[in-house]
Amino acid sequence: MGIYGFWGEDKSTKSTLALSFPKPLVFMEFDIGGFARACRNLPHLPIKDWYDQGLIKYEAYPLPMTFGKFDPTKLEIRPSKLVVGMKELFYHWATEYVKHLQDPDIASIVIDTATILKTVTDDCYLQELQEKQLPLDPITGLGSDKKSLRTQLLQIEYKEPNSRTRGIYYNAKSHNKHLVLVHHARDEYKPMPQRDGSMANAPTGKRERSGFATLGDSADIIAYTYWDDKFKKPYCKIELAEVKELEGVVFETPTFQKIQSAIDMIKGM
Predict the structure, then answer these.
(1) Which CATH number applies to 3-267: 3.40.50, 1.10.357, 3.30.2320, 3.10.450?
(2) In this structure, what DSSP letter does residue 216 have?
């Protein structure tokens, strides 16, 4: 049992690879649409058959509409600084997640995407802090603590949501589950020299995994997935692994079984 992080561009078969993990499997989807695309029979994976047989359970966790007050008669949207619905979404998801951890029949849990789950976890805590400031003064807009309504977490305050994220990951191991974390890709930013001689964060032209920055501390494997237009096949490249010999290995039409077989061969099992 282990923790696996897969990331890549849109439609690079991240979810498809995740669905190849041992069954019964629960697919907990925040990024609505990926499961529907992946849930079809492919030459190397009978995903639709697994779903029809009840070996894959699907759960949707759509993000709440957080655009503030909306008056359809005036077609006017008045944005609100209040975070709404994120705490409720996180607690609902966490309740179901714990149930799956405690279910002895569940072998694998997929979170698609862990990028969005990290946002939900952070905003859940921000909502909790905002609610401590309520009610707001209708004239000044100040919270009950006489301060402006906070709109983002301070750097030091990320300790709490980060601890919750680590708890999510490590509890999967303690319950002997495969936890598969699907991630989006984003532009990589690093300190770069500017024209005026100063240093500032700027895009490097490369892409990186978007999500919990220290996932590598707890993950057994992190891999980059991509689609090769020339060969019309999916691939994944192992970037980080507990079995160091696996790092840098590229798998064609990757599946859990292919990766596990390579690990077993390296370990001499």
Answers:
(1) 3.40.50
(2) G
